[in-house]
Design a protein that fits this description.
mainly alpha; Arc Repressor Mutant, subunit A; 17 helices
Amino acid sequence: MTVTAINPAHPCSEASEIEPLTLAMNMEQDRRELQLLLLADDQTTTLLLNHCLTQLENGVDISEIVSDKIIVQGEDFVQVNLSQTLHLLLDNAVARSSLVNLHFLSNFLIEISGRCLSLPSEDFVFRGYQQKLGRSAKALQASRQKMITNNTGLAAFVAHKHKTTVLSFDDLLQEGVIGLIKAVDRFDPYRGFQFSTYAIPWIKQAISRLIVKQEKIVRLPVALAERSCAVFEAMRKAYQQTERWPSVEQLKALCDLSVDEIKTIRNYYQATHSLDAVRETQEDEGQTLMARMKQQQFALPMDELIAGNLNQYIDNVVATLPEKEAAILNMRFGLKNHTETTLQVVADQLQVSRERVRQIQNEALKKLKNQFGCDLVLFLEPNDSY
């Protein structure tokens, strides 16, 4: 059964492995034919070796070129390092026969074929060779593309299981397809393994490395981050069984990791939030996290300074009023003991009517506003009215 649509909820079934294996065998046959064609001519073989040297000098890993280590057999030859090996192969035509046993990656062979096809030549025989090389490269490109397209659902399945709040499914799928392509280029269908069994670790590695790179500003080493899945899986199973999170010692017994590594992984993957992020919920009213987290138990130093200056200034301006007006304001607004009282309580203490207390209060406030209003404006909050 051909996988024609991306279904992230279900992986490829065992029956569907028959066609990927057939496609992989056809692709491997096309790859071998193209490799043998490239190695059949000294000029193209020299171009292949020179390009290998250029790639290595530019920092490209050898695993991006071949899926096996280069081994050159010879009675008087000692392999020192890869660069010296390639230089020896350039000078020794006999030793080049060992290149036939290597598994050059399909994408590398296609790239070399393109370079060979661009070589100018007046030789009729070599032009015929180039035409044959072009047909072989197109056949490999077509079978490789079909192999990738028919297994995209496998990348979608793995990406669905690694969904995060930071990265979208499309980003994970795109990175998963990159891992799938690496698996397609390296898969050997004659070793008896199903393609999905071989490809899933490559897809998981690509996706997990993307998550490590993008999810945190300070990154864990990739090797440690990839082992974090085992820690979280052990935590999940322990919580399902006991309904409580396991201790570090329990995790150590469940995972092949040290206590320090478990603590590093557990602390590293705690949720992080931006202090400047604005939440548009009804409860938060568009405030930033910093504004909502402002502690209320202790006053800020600046707030204490402003409040102290304000209290001192109010005491001074109220003291300029007549004794009766000052007493009414002190009792009404709790300027002395921070306890406000009603008009009726003040009226009972001064043995006057409630209306008379209100009149005296308004007259006193009007005096303060006229005499000290400009100075008191400095103590108002931005949204307060004057």
